[in-house]
Design goal:
The structure holds two protein chains of two kinds. By secondary structure, chain A is α+β, with helices and mostly antiparallel strands. Helices cover about 40% and strands about 20% of the residues of chain A. In chain B, about 45% of the residues lie in helices and about 15% in strands. In chain B, strands 1, 2, 3, 9, 10, 11 and 12 form a seven-stranded mixed beta sheet that branches. In chain B, strands 15-17-18-16 form a four-stranded antiparallel beta sheet, with helices on both faces. In chain B, strands 4-6-5 form a three-stranded antiparallel beta sheet. The two termini of chain B are about 60 Å apart. In chain B, helix 15 crosses helix 18. Chain B is α+β, with helices and mostly antiparallel strands. Chain B has 25 helices and 20 strands. Classes of the chains: A alpha+beta, B alpha+beta.
Chain lengths: ~300, ~725
């Protein structure tokens, strides 16, 4: 029997803490991916070194399946790692991390297959792989090249573990809701109702007029805050716009021609936040350059 | 001095996993450029052995010389007359030259140059060693490799397809000291991640393939591919089946799925084919979905039984030497089960609705950012089917018009199905499967299934006339839209696959023997966008001109590909490219007829007529009564009989017969040119003769502009 869901996340946190990563917690504004967490989006900018790891609940309204699909979720739990600059042995460290939850690379077929990543809303793009184990994608591995519309240097490596899939694979479970979470409960016990309700909300019930207004207001507020030199709260506005757009899209409220416009508006705000953040750090003399966290204890 | 040497050179760039699709082209370029460098440097012209895996690009060269030959050169200075004064003492000019060359004036010799006798000296430039040449060349050669996408890593200073970890550069046993992407060269490579050592010191360049083999890496991709193919064939036999060819791909030779074989070859360093099984109940799903499901994400080979049905087995190629505990097989089976369960879920969800009921969602699916939604496309394609149906009917092909209309109305509905969202390459096919399941007529279902055919140049065409109309309407609509945006595809840039789209449409018209006017049908396609395109870049008129010109180019390309000689093709197109089927028939006739005796004379005569008519205003119509000479009367008579004979031949598209009739003009034309002065003094006589020639030119160019095939020899001018 493999690890249960919470044990998997705990082992990953422990492993990466041992690699000198700051163990963060999920961000408390809705995100579609761990990349949108400010501790990734902002920290990959500029010259300062940074290592972090955290579990990131990721909301994807269009992926909701009313709890009926055994593999697809409205909200899933990514485990996100950022290593900046990417160390030369980053692949080996990653392979060792698999041992943390009981996978011996010598008994499996582990491959790095080309898979590049792009987020038009964040003005971000990276080059890398999906990591396949015995034919299953278990992680995304990305060298960030650009974020917030800015070319990056040094380059951060991002590793994203698909926690649910890995755990299902380890346990030979065919339905995510049957997965043992911990505390004697299953994933379904903990989350099924939420999946059903949010599917109903995103596909049927969300108030389109309200969401459109909310989008506009957060967009305006974000730009206003940036005008005052207040950066992180402005980025929260960008995240809220992004999530609102995702719900509108799931709700079928966005036409083809409108779609590009919405994406560009979120992007404009996110890019402005990135520039402002970088300027702020520069004004402070990039403090972490002087307090470089000691990389890998091992 | 160039020539073969006896030495071996190894260059290996060790990297993180290179995308499979880029490996082969990169290593070929690496081999080619290294050979070029060495042969340009006069160090031999060995043929390279190429090695490539996901983690390394390597070239082993044999027959390299150890150093370049020394080169003698002569450097000349001022002329002797200017170099010495009357007393024979060196002048300032001679001193200056000697100083610049770093020699004493007394060392200057007299040398002969094209400018006369000068002072000068001989210098020997020592040849460089192969090691030195390679050390300089390697960073340039490797840095110059083309990759569709590159990246930076770590400090961000270097750029390559993936991070570089090692550079092995050996001249026999000597390290070629160089650097690439911040990595110093050496003699240490690395083995398979799991099955090999992390560090392998190579004593000699030629030890490379065997050292890697001993460390779990089969570095020769050709050998690796053959090994996979052998294992696949054996595993398929053992399972009682054969490799299945997936929809939308083309088998070649013994390989049922060569594309996938190429791809998996570049994804492993040491291959092991693993046979897995899945629940037979999944075989209830359409074979197309099963096959794609296995292949798309999983890169598994599907198996079919001798009766053509799928087996509940699959073959997976792993990057390991063995699977002793069966963990890899079990893992792959688990993953496929998940995938197939997913596919069944999508299929069952899709089947809760009829295909016809999905159309409402199309206004939210983008056909093209600037060309609107698929609902817009549906409206245009439905309209465009009208004139196409007419053209088909007029050509004796009679598609079921109702079936075409129904099919056009639901053709894009499958784009909103779960299965197509998951497997985009099944678009069309899924529409066809669902239409059949909904009980729509077979003519509708087949048309939907085949609507994207042909997908490539060698691909099959739609099986039915209804499918052909649908495919054509869809293609012409896309072409029109893209050209209205002012986008004209070029050899290197064709983001919307317009070249393939036009060629496919052209093949359908020709092979279905459908005659139509491109002017007319392209005009109709462009009108579909009238007044609805906010970002239209060019007028309908200029879009049409550009599109027609593009079509002509593709017609020419296809005909030459089909083995017709370029001049025949151009001659027929020169007489009118507007009806691709008709133009092809004329090309074939010209190509067959042009070897007949007398054709060259006819072509020359035509050329002569065209030269005479050049710049002449079209005047009065030709009148028999005005003819005076015997030769011109005979010619006119022959023109009358040719015209009469042509009518029947042209109507039946018997262009060889038409050309034979036209060829009978040659003899009276020759006589006419010998005996009659076209440019007569009398204006009326002259105009009448010109009119006669114009009439002949018109007759000829109903088939082809044969003047384009006239032999290039100086002819008499009238």
């Amino acid at each position: 029997m493999g690890l249960n869901f919470q044990e998997l996340i705990l082992r990953l946190q422990e492993f990466w803490a041992g690699q000198g990563a700051v163990i963060q917690q999920p961000y408390d504004v809705e995100v579609g991916a761990g990349t949108m967490h400010p501790d990734t989006f902002f920290r990959v900018l500029g010259p300062e070194p940074w290592r972090t790891a955290y579990c990131s609940p990721s909301r994807r309204p269009v992926d909701g399946r009313y709890g009926q699909n055994p593999f697809r979720l409205y909200r899933h739990y990514q485990f996100q790692v950022i290593l900046k600059p990417s160390p030369p042995d980053v692949q080996e460290i990653y392979l060792r991390s698999l041992g943390a939850f009981g996978i011996d690379p010598r008994e499996h077929d582990i491959r790095f297959e080309e898979d590049n990543w792009e987020s038009p809303t964040l003005g971000a793009a990276g080059v890398g792989w999906q990591v396949m184990m015995d034919g299953m994608e278990i992680s995304q591995f990305t060298y960030f090249q650009q974020a917030g519309g800015l070319e990056l240097s040094p380059i951060a490596a991002e590793i994203t573990y698909g926690s649910e899939r890995i755990c299902m694979f380890l346990n030979g479970v065919d339905n995510v809701y049957d997965l043992a979470w911990g505390g004697g409960l299953t994933y379904g016990d903990v989350r099924l109702e939420e999946e059903i309700e949010f599917s109903r909300h995103n596909f049927e019930a969300a108030d389109v007029v309200l969401l459109e207004r909310v989008f506009q207001q957060y967009e305006a507020e974000g730009h206003r805050l940036l005008g005052l030199g207040i950066v992180t709260p402005a980025y929260d506005c960008a995240l809220r716009c992004s999530h609102t757009f995702n719900v509108l899209e799931a709700r079928g409220a966005i036409s083809v021609t409108e779609r590009t416009g919405y994406i560009q508006r979120v992007r404009r705000l996110a890019v402005a936040c990135a520039k402002a953040y970088l300027a702020q750090r520069e004004a402070k003399g990039f403090p972490l350059l002087r307090r470089a966290p000691s990389p890998a204890a091992s | 001095m160039s020539g073969a040497g006896r030495h071996q050179v190894l260059l290996e760039i060790g990297t993180e996993e290179i995308p499979a699709r880029m490996v082969q082209a990169a290593v070929e370029e690496l081999g080619r450029t290294l050979v070029e460098v060495l042969s340009k440097a006069g160090l031999g012209s060995a043929s390279p052995r190429l090695f490539a895996t996901p983690r390394r690009l390597a070239v082993l060269l044999d027959g390299v010389a150890s150093r370049q030959a020394d080169q003698e050169t002569e450097i000349s200075g001022p002329p002797v007359a200017a170099a010495y004064d009357a007393q024979g003492k060196p002048t300032r000019a001679a001193e200056g030259f000697a100083r610049a060359q770093g020699v004493a004036v007394s060392d200057l010799k007299r040398v002969r140059t094209p400018k006369g006798e000068c002072v000068g000296l001989r210098r020997t430039i020592a040849g460089r060693s192969a090691v030195q040449v390679l050390a300089d060349a390697i960073p340039v050669v490797v840095g110059g490799l083309y990759f569709p996408k590159t990246m930076r890593w770590g400090s961000g200073e270097h750029r390559f397809v993936r991070p570089v970890h090692s550079v092995v550069a050996l001249f026999d046993g000597e390290v070629v000291g160089t650097r690439f992407a911040g990595v110093a060269s050496g003699r240490a490579t690395f083995g398979h991640r799991v099955a090999g050592r992390e560090r392998i010191e190579l004593a000699l360049a030629r030890d490379y393939p065997e050292a890697l083999r001993a460390n779990g890496v089969l570095a020769d991709a050709v050998e690796r591919r053959a090994k996979i193919a052998r294992q696949l064939a054996a595993a398929a036999r053992a399972a009682g089946g054969a490799i299945a060819t997936p929809p939308g791909t083309t088998p070649s030779g013994a390989d049922a799925d060569p594309e996938l074989l190429d791809e998996v070859t570049e994804m492993v360093e040491w291959p092991l084919v693993i046979t897995g099984e899945f629940d037979v109940r999944f075989l209830e799903l359409p074979a197309e979905i099963l096959l794609t499901s296995m292949r798309h994400h999983q890169k598994y080979f599907a198996l079919r039984a001798p009766d053509g049905t799928l087996l509940n087995r699959f073959l997976s190629v792993a990057n390991v030497a063995q699977d002793p505990k069966g963990a890899i097989r079990r893992g792959n089976e688990w993953v496929l089960k998940a995938r197939l369960a997913d596919a069944r879920f999508f299929f069952d969800e899709d089947r809760k609705h009829t295909l016809g009921s999905l159309g409402d969602a199309l206004d939210r699916v983008a056909f093209h950012e600037k060309l609107g939604s698929y609902a817009d496309k549906r409206r245009r394609v439905e309209t465009l089917a009208g004139p196409l149906l007419q053209a088909f009917a007029a050509s004796g092909v009679r598609p079921d018009a109702d079936a075409v209309r129904v099919a056009a109305g639901v053709a894009k509905n499958d784009l909103v199905t779960h299965v197509v969202k998951e497997f985009p390459e099944l678009q069309g096919i899924v529409g066809g499967l669902y239409a059949r399941a909904d009980g729509l007529p077979a003519a509708v279902a087949d048309a939907l299934y085949d609507q994207y055919l042909p997908r490539s140049q060698d691909d099959a065409l739609p099986r039915t006339a209804e499918g052909a109309v649908l495919s054509l309407a869809d293609r012409l609509d896309t072409q029109a839209g893209i050209f209205l945006l002012g986008i004209v595809p070029t050899g290197s840039r064709d983001p919307y696959g317009i070249r393939r789209s036009v060629q496919g449409a052209c093949r359908i018209l020709i092979e279905r023997r459908v005659s139509l006017s491109l002017q007319g049908i392209c005009g109709a396609a462009l009108r579909g966008y009238s007044g609805r395109l906010p970002e239209q870049a060019v007028s309908e008129e200029s879009a049409r001109a550009a599109l027609l010109e593009f079509w002509t180019g593709r017609q020419e390309f296809l005909a030459i590909e089909a083995g017709l000689r370029p001049e025949s093709v151009r001659a027929a197109l020169g007489a009118g490219p507007d009806d691709p089927y008709d133009a092809r028939r004329r090309m074939e006739a010209v190509d067959a007829f042009r070897d007949e005796a007398g054709f060259a004379d006819l072509a020359s005569a035509h050329k002569r007529i065209k030269n005479i008519l050049q710049g002449q205003e079209a005047g009065t119509p030709f009148e028999t009564a005005r003819l005076s000479d015997e030769a011109e009367r005979r010619l006119a008579k022959r023109v009358d009989s040719v015209r009469a004979g042509l009518e029947g031949a042209l109507a039946a598209r018997e262009y060889a017969r038409a050309l034979a009739a036209i060829a009978t003009l040659r003899e009276p034309l020759d006589r006419f040119f010998t005996e009659v002065m076209v440019m007569a003094e009398d204006r009326a006589v002259r105009a009448n003769r010109l009119a006669l020639l114009r009439e002949i030119a018109t007759l000829i160019t109903q088939v082809a502009d044969v003047s384009l095939i006239a032999p290039a020899r100086p002819g008499k001018e009238a």
